[in-house]
Amino acid sequence: MLSKGFGGAERLFVDFCQALANGGHNVQAVCHPEFDAISKLAHDKISISPLKVKWDWSPLARKRLEKILTDYSPQVIHSHLCRGSAVAGSVGDKLGIPVIANMHNYVNLKYYKDISHFCPSTEDQKRYLMSKGILEKNITIIPHFSMIPVVEKEIVINSNEPTTLVSFGRFVYKKGFHILLDAVKQLVESGLDIRLVLGGDGPEMKNLRHQAETANLQDRIKFHGWVNNVSDFLAISSYFILPSLDEPFGIVIIEAMARGKVILASKSKGPEEILDSSTAWKFEVNDSLSLAEAIRKAIYNPSESIKKARAAQIKYKSDYSPESIIPAYISLYNKMINQHRDYKYIS
């Protein structure tokens, strides 16, 4: 993982390293030296190898990674995002080490030409890969997971007034936070006493603040800043909202599932595969009226909301926890290692 920030893909990278290390596996974490979450990789089974890549096809970065991998002698390489996959794929192919790439989006496959095996998190991502010529035998769907602790206590809804809602993520247009602000405006104008705590940062921050001010929502909306502790942030409210216009998966969803939150999610591609009407309140993409109505239903039907939150938590445990996902990856790693036994391995 060669990016510096700490969004959903980076959180998954850290969780992968920690989960594998907790399972007794030796892990080499190759990451940017200024990676925001480098301290979260601390573990006696994790060896951190800094690698700075200034441009995607850098021969110097490839030479440095070749030295890093030669010294460590891994059996398999697991890459994340375009830059990491481009560099790791090239070096892994040269050294005869299988390279498995996690899919976090509908990627430009020019960065993935040397990847041995693809791991999309949804059926829709698999269809996309196959439409681009990737053979089905080189694709294994394995959902994302989270190491966030599961709330084991009974799920309840805080009945205090006003009702508080939370949402967080990168402040980019496709995350749909402007739709959420518009829905809050509609609900406040209809007389509903609600508050919104919005976590995150990014290029849309200025526009979102301006939207809140123009709608006279300064006292209703709090901009929390970047969320470093997801559990603590989700504890602010019983309700979590994902308003994305385009969401390939949505790690924030499974985090909210684990924490027993009432989830309201747009009918974008990832949430549509993760959630259904038994686990969340759904609303139409890019439709603030639909979102406002979903919020109203969730608030005025607390018993139904709690029922959905319980079902979502059960689904998290069975489908998206480390206990259910990591064994699938270990099985894939072993399969890839066995298939590559005739390759020239590092001595």
Short description:
With 347 residues, the chain is α/β, with parallel strands linked by helices. The chain has helices spanning 8-22, 59-72, 81-95, 123-131, 177-189, 205-214, 230-234, 251-258, 269-274, 288-300, 302-319, 322-339, and strands spanning 27-31, 46-50, 77-80, 99-102, 117-119, 163-170, 194-201, 221-225, 239-242, 262-266, 281-283. A six-stranded parallel β-sheet has the order 8-7-6-9-10-11, with helices on both faces. A three-stranded parallel β-sheet has the order 3-4-5. A two-stranded parallel ribbon has the order 1-2.
Bin the strand percentage. 15-25%
The biggest beta sheet reads:
6 strands, parallel
Integer-rounded radius of gyration: 21 Å
The whole-number mean of residue pLDDT values reads: 93
Q: Would you tell me the structural class of the helices and strands?
A: alpha/beta
Low-confidence parts lasting 5 or more residues at pLDDT below 50? 342-347
Assembly level: single chain
Number of strands: 11
Q: Helical stretch count?
A: 12
Helix content: 40-55%
What is the H/E string?
A: HEEHEHEEHEHEHEHEHEHEHHH
Shape verdict: elongated
Q: Quote the distance from N terminus to C terminus.
A: 25 Å
Within the largest sheet, what's the order of strands? 8-7-6-9-10-11
